[in-house]
């Protein structure tokens, strides 16, 4: 299992870099070419949401992305440190119960539509969004 970690400051320009890095690693991990646009868009949405939250609450704190290949999956976790008073610590958000996607952020609903598997962990100390897609074992697509 290989892991790549990336941190960046809360500037919109860095979202593009995060998307490019995620797409390159997804390709190398063996994510099908047809899914790479979904990876790019979902990572961009998660990072944009984090940048927006940081700019409003903690502009000096970095945003963290962890990219890993694990058991035939390409997994991306975007973590921010923007506080939220209305969220219980580390209680996963049930994405199937989103009656109003604007209540938790429209971006999360978009991410849920793009990624194969999504988990959102909001807490008073920030939010962690984990998303994953199928990847070829050992990073090699079948020929």
TrEMBL record:
Q: Which SUPFAM superfamilies match?
A: ATPase domain of HSP90 chaperone/DNA topoisomerase II/histidine kinase
Provide the Histidine kinase/HSP90-like ATPase domain boundaries.
8-133
Name of the protein in its database record: ATP-binding protein
The domain of life is Bacteria
Can you tell me which residues the record assigns to a coiled coil? none
PANTHER family, sorted: ANTI-SIGMA-F FACTOR RSBW, ANTI-SIGMA-F FACTOR RSBW-RELATED
Lineage runs:
Bacteria, Bacillati, Actinomycetota, Actinomycetes, Streptosporangiales
The UniProt keyword set, sorted, is: ATP-binding, Kinase, Nucleotide-binding, Serine/threonine-protein kinase, Transferase
Matching entries from InterPro entries are given as: Anti-sigma-factor_SerPK, HATPase_C_sf, HATPase_dom
Q: Which GO terms describe its molecular function?
A: ATP binding; protein serine/threonine kinase activity
Key word Nucleotide-binding present in the record? yes
Gene3D superfamilies associated with the record? Histidine kinase-like ATPase, C-terminal domain
